[in-house]
Amino acid sequence: MYVREYRLVRQTDQPVSDTVTGMEIEMRCEFTIRRGELNDLPELKKLFVDTITSICKADYDADQIDAWISDTKSGANRQSWYDMIINQFVLVAQYGIKIVGFATLDDGNHIDLFYVHKDHQRQGIASRLYVGLENEARRQHQTILTADISKTARRFFITPKFNVLAEQVVNRKGVDLINYKMIKSIDNNQTASNQD
Question: Which of 12, 27, 54, 109 has its CA 20 to 30 A from that of 87?
Fold first, then answer.
C-alpha cells in the first residue's frame, strides 16, 4: 500500500511553500524496495539520464554530462543495460507506479549503478537502496564492497563509512570525468541499517 501522509509540524506566521492556512506541514512519501525486472529498463534508463543531467551538473560540466549519458541516450549501450538487469542484483525504489531510484550490485561486492530520481533526493531512498545492497553482499558472504563513485555521489558514500582509495580519471568519448574508487569492509555478523 502506498500512502502520502501529512503531519502538522508547527504553526507559523511565515509564508512557507508547504503551508496550509498558516500551519507548516511535513510530507512523508512511502515507497517500496523491490528487485528490478527486465520491463523496468526503459524507466531505469530515463531515470539515469534525468538524474545525471539535473543533479550532477553542480559537479560536472555540460560536455562531461553529455559524454556520460551519450550511449544511453543513443541506445548504443542497449546490450549493457540488458546484461545488467539479467546478471546483477538490481534493487528498485518505487513510489506508486513510478520508479524513484535504483541500485545494482555486480559480482556480489561491486556497486555498479546507484541513482535516485531528481525529484526524490534526500528522502531516504538512497539509504534504503544501499542497505539492501549491503545486506545482499553479506548474504553472499562478501567481506568488502567496492564502487566507482561520482563527485556528486561521494558525499553520500562517505556516510556509510566508505574510504576513498583513489581519484580516477575516466575518459568517455574523448572527455575526462573524475570519479573515486571507494571501498568498505563489511562484517558478515551484522546487518546493515539505514543511515538517514
Answer: 54
Q: Which residues contact 3 (CB under 8 A, 6 or more apart)?
A: 30
pLDDT digits (tens, 9 = 90+) for 139-184: 999 999 999 999 999 989 987 789 999 999 999 889 999 999 999 9
- On whether residue 190 sits in a domain, the answer given is no
CA distance 138 to 188: 5
Residue 8 identity? L
pLDDT in tens, 77-123: 888 999 999 999 999 999 999 999 999 999 999 999 999 999 899 88
- Supply the range of the domain harboring residue 20: 1-30
Q: Do both 54 and 9 map to the same domain?
A: no
H or E element: which one contains 76? Answer: none
Other beta carbons within 10 Å of 124:
16
Instruction: List, in order, residues 6 or more apart from 102 with CB less than 8 Å away.
Output: 36, 40, 44, 47, 90, 91, 92, 93, 113, 114, 115, 129
84 and 116 in contact (C-beta within 8 Å)? no
Let me know whether 170 and 97 are in one domain: yes
